[in-house]
Predict the 3D structure of the following.
Amino acid sequence: MANRIFVSYNFNDREMSRSIKSFTQSYGGPVRGNFIFVENDVSAYGDAAIDNEIKNVMSGCDSAFFVVGNNNHNSPWINREVVLAMSKGLKIVVSSFPNSNGGVPNQLRKIPHTEVKWKPSDIANELNK
Protein backbone atom coordinates (compact mmCIF):
# COMPACT_ATOMS: atom_id res chain seq x y z
CA MET A 1 0.00 0.00 0.00
CA ALA A 2 1.33 3.44 -0.92
CA ASN A 3 2.06 5.98 1.79
CA ARG A 4 -0.11 9.05 2.03
CA ILE A 5 1.84 12.20 2.80
CA PHE A 6 -0.05 15.24 4.06
CA VAL A 7 1.64 18.41 2.80
CA SER A 8 1.34 21.47 5.02
CA TYR A 9 2.02 24.80 3.33
CA ASN A 10 0.79 28.37 3.20
CA PHE A 11 -1.69 29.06 0.38
CA ASN A 12 0.59 31.90 -0.74
CA ASP A 13 3.24 29.24 -1.46
CA ARG A 14 0.79 26.94 -3.24
CA GLU A 15 2.53 26.82 -6.61
CA MET A 16 5.92 25.82 -5.26
CA SER A 17 4.46 23.41 -2.70
CA ARG A 18 2.30 21.64 -5.27
CA SER A 19 5.39 20.95 -7.39
CA ILE A 20 7.04 18.83 -4.68
CA LYS A 21 6.22 15.48 -6.30
CA SER A 22 7.74 16.39 -9.67
CA PHE A 23 10.62 18.12 -7.88
CA THR A 24 11.58 14.99 -5.95
CA GLN A 25 11.01 12.63 -8.88
CA SER A 26 13.05 14.71 -11.31
CA TYR A 27 15.99 15.44 -9.08
CA GLY A 28 16.13 13.05 -6.18
CA GLY A 29 14.25 9.90 -6.91
CA PRO A 30 10.58 9.16 -6.40
CA VAL A 31 8.84 9.42 -3.11
CA ARG A 32 6.93 6.20 -2.43
CA GLY A 33 3.49 7.57 -1.81
CA ASN A 34 0.95 10.17 -2.70
CA PHE A 35 1.11 13.79 -1.64
CA ILE A 36 -2.18 15.01 -0.16
CA PHE A 37 -3.07 18.72 0.00
CA VAL A 38 -5.76 20.88 1.60
CA GLU A 39 -7.46 22.35 -1.45
CA ASN A 40 -10.16 24.50 0.12
CA ASP A 41 -9.58 27.68 2.10
CA VAL A 42 -12.35 27.51 4.67
CA SER A 43 -10.81 30.01 7.08
CA ALA A 44 -13.71 32.43 6.58
CA TYR A 45 -15.99 29.86 8.26
CA GLY A 46 -14.10 29.73 11.55
CA ASP A 47 -11.93 27.42 13.58
CA ALA A 48 -14.29 24.43 13.50
CA ALA A 49 -14.41 24.50 9.70
CA ILE A 50 -10.61 24.70 9.53
CA ASP A 51 -10.20 21.77 11.91
CA ASN A 52 -12.74 19.67 10.01
CA GLU A 53 -11.09 20.38 6.65
CA ILE A 54 -7.64 19.47 7.98
CA LYS A 55 -8.95 16.31 9.67
CA ASN A 56 -10.70 15.19 6.49
CA VAL A 57 -7.66 15.73 4.29
CA MET A 58 -5.24 14.27 6.84
CA SER A 59 -7.38 11.16 7.36
CA GLY A 60 -5.49 8.03 6.38
CA CYS A 61 -2.12 9.77 6.04
CA ASP A 62 1.07 8.14 7.30
CA SER A 63 3.26 11.23 7.50
CA ALA A 64 3.14 15.01 7.33
CA PHE A 65 5.55 17.13 5.32
CA PHE A 66 5.71 20.74 6.50
CA VAL A 67 6.97 23.21 3.91
CA VAL A 68 8.39 26.29 5.60
CA GLY A 69 8.61 29.58 3.73
CA ASN A 70 8.38 33.27 4.42
CA ASN A 71 4.59 33.14 4.74
CA ASN A 72 3.79 30.41 7.22
CA HIS A 73 5.97 30.45 10.31
CA ASN A 74 3.26 32.08 12.43
CA SER A 75 0.19 30.72 10.67
CA PRO A 76 -2.57 29.49 13.02
CA TRP A 77 -3.75 27.10 10.27
CA ILE A 78 -0.34 25.40 10.12
CA ASN A 79 -0.12 25.25 13.91
CA ARG A 80 -3.47 23.39 13.86
CA GLU A 81 -2.03 20.98 11.30
CA VAL A 82 0.92 20.30 13.60
CA VAL A 83 -1.36 19.51 16.53
CA LEU A 84 -3.56 17.21 14.42
CA ALA A 85 -0.57 15.44 12.84
CA MET A 86 0.90 14.83 16.26
CA SER A 87 -2.42 13.57 17.66
CA LYS A 88 -2.60 11.07 14.79
CA GLY A 89 0.96 9.90 15.42
CA LEU A 90 2.18 10.91 11.97
CA LYS A 91 5.85 11.03 11.12
CA ILE A 92 6.72 14.73 10.75
CA VAL A 93 9.27 16.02 8.24
CA VAL A 94 10.10 19.70 7.78
CA SER A 95 11.91 21.49 4.96
CA SER A 96 12.40 25.18 4.20
CA PHE A 97 12.17 26.78 0.79
CA PRO A 98 15.53 28.04 -0.44
CA ASN A 99 16.16 31.73 0.18
CA SER A 100 13.33 31.99 2.69
CA ASN A 101 13.76 33.46 6.12
CA GLY A 102 10.63 32.21 7.86
CA GLY A 103 11.24 30.17 10.96
CA VAL A 104 9.86 26.78 11.87
CA PRO A 105 6.26 27.21 13.11
CA ASN A 106 5.97 27.50 16.90
CA GLN A 107 4.09 24.23 17.38
CA LEU A 108 6.73 22.29 15.42
CA ARG A 109 9.46 23.48 17.75
CA LYS A 110 7.71 21.71 20.62
CA ILE A 111 7.53 18.20 19.13
CA PRO A 112 9.88 15.62 17.66
CA HIS A 113 10.37 16.10 13.93
CA THR A 114 13.02 15.67 11.27
CA GLU A 115 14.34 18.68 9.35
CA VAL A 116 15.83 18.19 5.89
CA LYS A 117 17.34 20.59 3.40
CA TRP A 118 15.27 21.64 0.37
CA LYS A 119 17.13 19.04 -1.63
CA PRO A 120 15.09 16.48 -3.59
CA SER A 121 17.15 13.46 -2.58
CA ASP A 122 17.06 14.44 1.11
CA ILE A 123 13.30 14.97 1.02
CA ALA A 124 12.69 11.69 -0.84
CA ASN A 125 15.02 9.70 1.41
CA GLU A 126 13.38 10.94 4.60
CA LEU A 127 9.79 10.50 3.39
CA ASN A 128 10.61 6.99 2.13
CA LYS A 129 11.88 5.82 5.56
Notes: Residues 51 and 90 are 16 Å apart (CA to CA). The first strand starts at residue 4 and ends at 8. The two ends are 14 Å apart (CA to CA). Helices lie at 14-18, 20-27, 47-58, 76-87, 106-109, 120-127.
